[in-house]
Specification:
Elements (H helix, E strand, L loop, with lengths): L3 H19 L2 E2 L5 E5 L4 E3 L3 E2 L6 E5 L7 E2 L2 E2 L6 E4 L7 E4 L8 E8 L4 E10 L28 H5 L9 E3 L15 E5 L26 E3 L2 E3 L4 E2 L5 E2 L12 E9 L2 E8 L3 E2 L5 E2 L12 E6 L4 E6 L15 H4 L8 E7 L2 E6 L3 E2 L7 E2 L2 H4 L45 H6 L20 H4 L12 H4 L16 H5 L10 E7 L6 H12 L3 E7 L5 E8 L7 H14 L9 E7 L3 E2 L9 E2 L26 E2 L4 E2 L5 E4 L5 E3 L4 E2 L5 E2 L22 E4 L4 E4 L21 E2 L5 E2 L23 E2 L5 E2 L4 E4 L6 E5 L25 H30 L22 H5 L15
Parallel strand pairs: 2-11, 2-12
Antiparallel strand pairs: 1-4, 3-9, 5-10, 6-7, 8-9, 10-11, 13-19, 14-15, 16-17, 18-19, 20-21, 22-23, 24-25, 26-27, 28-30, 28-31, 29-30, 32-33, 34-35, 36-37, 38-39, 40-41, 42-43, 44-45, 46-47
């Protein structure tokens, strides 16, 4: 017996079984979820046979992916993944609303992807607001697939209607950040199997009687014994566990918005559906004036958040300029002093140290360049402010194209050059041409937004959302989220070595706070890799000209260390409005002078005009010069609007034909009215001579004319046929005046009959006398006066042929008759083929007796017998 087949089959079954056993599957049977508007809802998704590398994702009804594993991709404040165990991948949605309704999909990303749909519905008519809390809740229903626990209230009251694979989830009070205004809560009571308040008419009758001993009077139930409702179906006594007794004052059942609810009145400091939540923030545990308490209900705790100030420094504000309290003893001993909250940081010049003591200590210059680490000041092709000293050979990399000190009048004020951004206020350097003294007086006195320390407003600076608490001048109106200042024309371009490691928004906000102006940063693609270009649009908050803004930024980068977080700046240059760089090395030295001189005028990277051309003598995105022969400019394609009278073509590049009258022609085609003896030829696209056959001048546009004798055609270019009478013909070429003798037809191409001297136009009749030897209307009969035979009308041959034929017929009939007579008389002689050859004889005489006794050999002679 062959066992090989069974062994292979068993191995395959084992492999398939193993793979099937470890394939993840869903456990939940719940497919329909219903909740009340405002509830927090959990959509279940339990996965069995999970592994460490399993990936479970949720998508919303619009097929937008909400989660990637445990990470929330969309609206993290409302969505979260609940992992109560390694199998659980439940999706939690906070404060559900009607747009949340729809089908959500839990998907297992594995070798065999699986999906489970959960249809979620938000209900509104029976929603009861919990007084004071703003939350809403329902009791869980009893369903075939429900996973919620039944409460004592369910066993006491009429149970919910049974619905397969659906449940109404209870809400849970979570993440309530603001104090409640009151301490009263309520719960929706479970409904009967068919609630009269929602499905059945509210009138009682014999078919719909009152329950619990109620009496029906005129369609209305009069209820007794602590029952209420349209049919006396709801008890007015709360179940024992409807509210937690230790945290509540009392519980009652009331009709509210068409539904019966439990109303729990909570004791002070307690909140929630059942007064189960202790609110720490009611006691105001955050004792600082600029802090806000945030309750953490799940953790049974709270947190204090800074409303303003540095959260890493007890929400303190920068309330004074600490650099002024510690001025350096030697003005040449420091680079700059940066004010901080309750502190300051000083950068000492080469040869000095002691940042906390005012740079009073002398040091070895050789050690200065390595103070930030061995080899820190090695030339790497970008500016390092801490190496911007002659002793470190780092000054060249910090000399940008936007030279900060090459400003009119600036060189004569050497003290402002030295004082720029040093952390101390120098009133004589506050002008724009001295770069506002680096805004030392403003930056060091800020409370809300500074590039040197962290505050709430600093973190929210320029995020597109206006924060009223940060809408002030110190914080530049929340990074200009709360204002809309006009931008300066032109851009400042920053070249960075390699890729930008910092987030563009962080760099943009730091630059904005440093320049005290709004900044819109755009990351550009560089022509020279590996380089990143940043273009900055700057508002006119402090600066009146983009040149000054670029110089200010260059000075800050070169002199103030540390504030750009290691951004490797190679160069800074300014592109004023109307300038651009065709190549990076141009540094915006090219001018787009032919563009319309409006605002930015042209794109700084390409030179493309942003607002059209200076006038209609230029065209295209780059406003190129119109062709030189154009009159009145050209269109956007470079085609002339008008040409000179002697030119034609799209760009007026072609001259009109010299034989055109006055030398002029139409602009688009070059067609013209030609001079005398010429006409316009569409084929040749020029004026050509009239035909030699024209009697007079031809038509100037078509070339048609009146023909001379011997020519025909619309342009008289064809000769008449040679046999036309007198060589003349009609314009269509027919010989309208007749043919030469002996010819006929429309063009006299046919010869008359041979006996005719002349014939009619159709050639049927001869005209005049016939030729000698012919007569008749067609000259076909011979008159006998000549030896000529008319080969057309002579029938002699035919007659002779008929006579000979008749004679032959008579001869054949005669021979046949004689033959018949001989046979009949017996004189028929057999042929050679019908008789045997006789024996030779001695004489020519035939023995008559012998001949008479010969027997015939042919059947034709059987009728003759010997008697």
């Amino acid at each position: 017996m062959d066992y090989k087949f069974y062994v292979e089959f068993a191995i395959i079954g084992l492999v398939v079984g193993t793979v099937t056993a470890v394939e993840p599957v869903f456990k939940d049977a719940i497919n329909n979820i219903t909740a009340i508007q405002g509830d927090d809802v959990i959509l279940p998704c339990t996965v069995l046979n999970t592994s460490a590398n399993i990936e479970v994702n949720w998508t919303n009804p619009d097929w937008v992916q909400l989660t990637h594993g445990e990470n929330v991709l969309l609206n993290g404040e409302r969505y979260s993944v609940e992992r109560q165990s390694t199998r659980k991948w439940d999706l939690k949605i906070k404060s559900v609303d009607f747009p949340d309704s729809g089908t959500y999909v839990c998907e297992i990303k594995s070798d065999t992807p699986q999906r489970k749909s959960v249809h979620f519905t938000v209900k509104a008519p029976t929603v009861i607001n919990l007084v004071g809390s703003g939350n809403k809740t329902t009791q869980p229903s009893t369903t075939h697939s429900s996973t919620t626990q039944s409460s004592t209230a369910q066993s006491t009251l009429t149970p919910f209607s049974t619905t397969q694979s659906s449940t109404i989830l209870p809400s849970t009070a979570q993440s309530i950040l603001t104090p409640f205004s009151t301490t009263q809560s309520s719960t929706i009571l479970p409904s009967t199997t068919r609630s009269p308040t929602t499905e059945d008419p509210k009138t009682c009758s014999g078919v719909r009687p009152c329950h619990n001993s109620g009496i029906c009077v005129n369609g209305t139930c009069n209820c007794i014994n602590d029952f209420i409702g349209s049919f006396c179906e709801e008890p007015t006594v709360c179940p024992p566990n409807a509210c937690k007794i230790n945290n509540t004052k009392n519980c009652s059942v009331e009709l509210e918005n068409g539904s019966f609810v439990y109303k729990c009145k909570c004791l002070p400091l307690y909140k929630g559906d059942h007064c189960e939540i202790y609110d720490f923030c009611e006691l105001n545990p955050c004792n600082k004036t600029n802090e806000q308490c945030v309750s953490l209900y799940k953790q049974n705790s709270y947190e204090c958040h800074c409303i303003r100030g540095d959260p890493n420094n007890d929400c303190k504000l920068n309330e004074g300029d600490n650099c002024l309290a510690k001025p350096p003893s030697n003005p040449n001993a420091y680079i700059t002093c940066i004010d901080q909250i309750d502190s300051f940081k000083m950068y000492c010049s080469p040869g000095y140290s002691g940042e906390k003591t005012g740079c009073l200590n002398n040091e070895n210059l050789e050690l200065y360049c390595d103070r930030n680490g061995p080899g820190y000041c090695i030339d790497e092709g970008y500016c390092k402010p801490l190496c911007n000293a002659d002793v470190c050979n780092g000054t060249e990399n910090c000399k940008f194209t936007a030279d900060p000190y090459n400003t009119t009048g600036f060189d004569t004020k050497s003290e402002c050059v030295q004082a720029f951004g040093d952390g101390y206020d120098h009133p004589n350097c506050h002008a724009e041409d001295t770069l506002f003294d680096g805004f030392d007086a403003k930056i060091n006195g800020l409370e809300d937004c500074s590039p040197f320390f962290d505050t709430v407003c600093t973190r929210d600076f320029g995020n597109g959302d206006c924060k009223p608490g940060c809408n002030n001048a110190d914080c530049l109106f929340d990074g200009f989220d709360c204002s809309n200042d006009t931008e300066l024309a032109g851009v400042v371009v920053v070249e960075i070595k390699g890729l930008l490691e910092a987030h563009p928004n962080v760099l943009q906000n730091n630059i904005s706070m440093m320049l005290r102006s709004g900044v819109n940063l755009t990351e550009e693609t560089s022509r020279d890799e590996p380089t990143t270009l940043l273009s900055l649009k700057i508002t006119e908050t402090e600066f009146t000209d983009i040149e000054y803004a670029g110089k200010f930024l260059a000075a800050v980068v070169a002199k103030r260390p540390g504030w750009l977080n290691g951004v490797k700046i190679k160069d800074i240059f300014v592109c004023p409005a109307g300038s651009y760089s065709s190549t990076y090395s141009d540094k915006c030295r090219r001018k787009c002078s032919t563009c319309n001189q409006v605002y930015d005028i042209c794109d700084w990277k390409t030179g493309r005009c942003l607002h059209g051309c200076f006038n209609n003598n230029f065209y295209g995105a780059m406003c190129k010069q119109c062709p030189q022969n154009c009159v009145g400019g050209c269109n956007e394609n470079g085609h002339c609007n008008t040409c000179p009278s002697d030119r034609h073509g799209k760009t007026c590049e072609q001259l009109c034909d010299e034989k055109c009258q006055s030398g002029t022609c139409t602009r688009n085609t070059g067609i013209c009215v030609c001079k005398d003896e010429y006409y316009w030829s569409d084929h040749d696209k020029r004026c050509v001579n009239c035909s030699d056959g024209c009697k007079k001048d031809c038509d100037a546009s078509s070339g048609s004319c009146i023909c001379r004798d011997g020519y025909y055609g619309s342009m008289c270019t064809s000769h008449c046929m040679d046999r036309c009478l007198n060589g003349t013909c009609h314009v269509n070429g027919t010989c309208d005046k007749g043919c030469d003798p002996g010819y006929y037809g429309p063009t006299c191409a046919l010869a008359c009959p041979s006996g005719c001297n002349a014939c009619s136009r159709d050639g049927r009749l001869c005209e005049g006398n016939c030729k000698p030897g012919y007569e008749g209307s067609t000259c076909e009969k011979s008159s006998g006066q000549s030896g000529y035979i008319n080969d057309v009308t002579d029938n002699t041959g035919l007659i002779i042929g008929v006579v000979i034929s008749l004679l032959l017929v008579v001869l054949i009939l005669t021979v046949a008759y004689c033959y018949w007579k001989k046979r009949k008389s017996g004189d028929y002689v057999m042929g050679d083929e019908e008789m045997e050859e006789p024996p030779p004889k001695e004489s020519n005489t035939i023995d008559e007796h012998t001949n008479m006794h010969m027997q015939p050999t042919s059947s034709l002679l059987e009728h003759s017998s010997v008697t």
